[in-house]
Design brief:
The complex is a heterodimer of chains A (about 180) and B (about 300). With about 180 residues, chain A is of the alpha+beta class. Chain A is built from 6 helices and 5 strands. Chain A has a 5-stranded mixed beta sheet with strand order 2-1-5-3-4, covered by helices on one side. In chain A, a hairpin with a 2-residue loop joins strand 1 and strand 2 (about 30-35). The longest helix of chain A has 14 residues, at about 120-135. The termini of chain A are far apart. Residues about 1-15 and about 175-184 of chain A have low confidence and may be disordered. Chain B has about 300 residues and is α+β, with helices and mostly antiparallel strands. In chain B, helix 9 packs antiparallel against helix 10 (about 240-255) and helix 10 runs antiparallel to helix 11 (about 265-295). Classes of the chains: A alpha+beta (about 180), B alpha+beta (about 300). The interface of A and B includes residues 15 and 58 of A.
């Protein structure tokens, strides 16, 4: 006897309700209609074409989907878009200012901290949060701050060096100034 | 994940009403760090998702000398870990928060969610149990308060009713000569679920003898488990290497681990012994440190 296929929950067509939400992304207000089950990650990538934020494990373990919500790092794969209204969202696209790369982005390039680049947005945003709160972190504090993003290419060493170099060169004041300008 | 209706009540009463109207079909959304994964893998498919983050007065951490610490259930893991109250009064609880997941998870996961999700490996639970915490469950005007260790009945199962929500966790002020330690073993230093976790709280009497002992084990039984044998053994004793070693052996006898993807049963039993004896020794060392500091 052949196995019967699993019957999907049947919904009347009009139950797939969409919600109109306003998202504050990289200082821009965007109105969009979403199903409640759509994650913030999917809205960023599929609807808004902000593909800097990556889709990896979708279970909150790899961190490549990291965005900043009100200045804190969050896995956007574990946040529904409908939960993200009334919050300041920063993605990697929002980090450079007037076409100029952020100090952290430059440091990552200079230190060979980017190979495939998949973890880079998550790493840079996590480092930005750290430096916004603690301009002079120890290496241990850097590692802790980055512990939410996995890298399969670099072995982490160059990433840690890139973040350390920004600390040593005293560039963190620019980081704070940029944060004030962006209001996150 | 399957589609659902998204509701965002503004009060506990409204939440309770909605839960009551949709019994068996609704799930509460707080941080979502466990719920959304279960929904994505279609382990559960609620028709209604009730986002309680719109309730403004469930996220707080307060302290008073007579009642201890009161945490609203929507306090995030980060809220608790960063709290000055927790750092000063409950350092073992702070150790537990820092052991959970990643910064990203800690910014979303809530203490209420950690308890109600009721994983046998829930990392806040062993420390909260040895600190003799209580939980407040509310629904439509009715409130009940339970000891946290009576809250869990099985993996993922608690005594909470379908229209109740957990609103607050209260942690009483520990006795003066009380020391606590939390220890977690995972496959990685950060970010992993517990293979084994141990929380110990010891109140010391005259001559540094154990007057009151609470030991809770995580990830080695269907629910977080008190090790009564190890506790009874330690009463009246002064802690040295041999005593803490033996306490570890008693804890090993009490635990009931399984073999799963993270570790074998036998390894978990062995690690319960090691972590318990280390945590007991750490409590004694902290006491000595505190006493020598006070003398200066």
């Amino acid at each position: 006897m052949c196995k019967q296929p699993k019957i999907a929950r049947e919904y009347p067509k009009d139950l797939t309700v969409k919600y109109r939400i306003t998202l504050d992304i990289n200082d821009e207000l965007i109105e969009i209609e979403v199903e409640p089950r759509t994650t913030l990650l999917d809205v960023l990538r599929n609807d808004l074409k902000l593909t800097g934020t990556k889709k990896g494990c979708e279970v909150g373990e790899c961190g490549v989907c990291t965005v900043l919500i009100d200045g804190e790092p969050i896995n956007s794969c574990l946040m529904l878009a409908v939960e993200a209204g009334n919050k300041k969202i920063l993605t990697i696209e929002g980090l450079s200012l007037d076409g100029q790369l952020h100090f952290l982005q430059k440091a990552f390039i200079e230190h060979g901290a980017i190979q495939c680049g998949f973890c880079t947005p998550g790493m840079i945003l996590s480092a930005k949060v750290l430096l916004d709160k603690n301009p002079h972190p120890s290496e241990e504090e850097i590692k802790e701050a980055l512990s939410g993003v996995l890298c399969r290419c670099t072995g982490y060493q160059q990433i840690i060096e890139a973040v350390s170099s920004v600390v040593e060169s005293g560039s963190t004041q620019r980081t704070t100034d940029q944060a004030i300008t962006k209001g996150v | 994940m399957n589609t659902f209706d998204y509701l965002k009540p503004r009060s506990v009463e409204e939440t309770s009403l909605l839960m009551g109207q949709h019994i068996g079909e609704a799930k509460i959304l707080a941080g979502g760090t466990d719920l959304l994964i279960a929904m994505r893998y279609q382990e559960i498919s609620p028709k209604y998702l009730i986002d309680i983050k719109g309730i403004s007065d469930l996220r707080y951490i307060q302290y008073s000398e007579d009642e201890g610490m009161r945490c609203g259930s929507l306090s995030t893991i980060c809220d608790i870990g960063d709290s000055r109250i927790v750092k000063e009064r409950f350092p073992d609880l702070q150790q537990a928060t820092l052991s959970i997941g990643t910064p990203q998870i800690r910014n979303r996961g809530t203490v209420g969610g950690n308890l109600c999700n009721a994983s046998p490996a829930a990392d806040l639970v062993p420390s909260l149990i040895v600190l003799e915490s209580e939980v407040t469950l509310v629904k439509s005007g009715k409130t009940r308060i339970l000891k946290l260790e009576d809250f869990f009945v099985g993996p993922g199962q608690t005594v909470i009713e379908q229209d109740e929500i957990l609103s607050e966790i209260r942690v009483p002020v520990p006795p003066r000569n009380s020391q606590g330690c939390f220890s977690k073993l995972g496959r990685t230093r950060m970010g992993d679920l517990s293979t084994v976790s141990v929380a110990v709280r010891i109140t010391f009497g005259a001559n540094s003898k154990c007057e009151c002992v609470k030991i809770a084990l995580g990830a080695v039984a269907p629910t977080p488990l008190r090790s009564k044998s190890a506790e009874d053994f330690l009463i009246g004793k002064m802690i040295n290497d041999q005593v803490s070693e033996t306490a570890g052996r008693w804890a090993m006898e009490d635990c009931q681990p399984i073999t799963d993807v993270r570790a074998s049963r036998d390894y978990r039993r062995e690690m319960v012994k090691v972590l318990t004896s280390r945590a007991v020794r750490a409590c004694a060392n902290n006491l000595r440190l505190r006493e020598s500091t006070q003398r200066i």
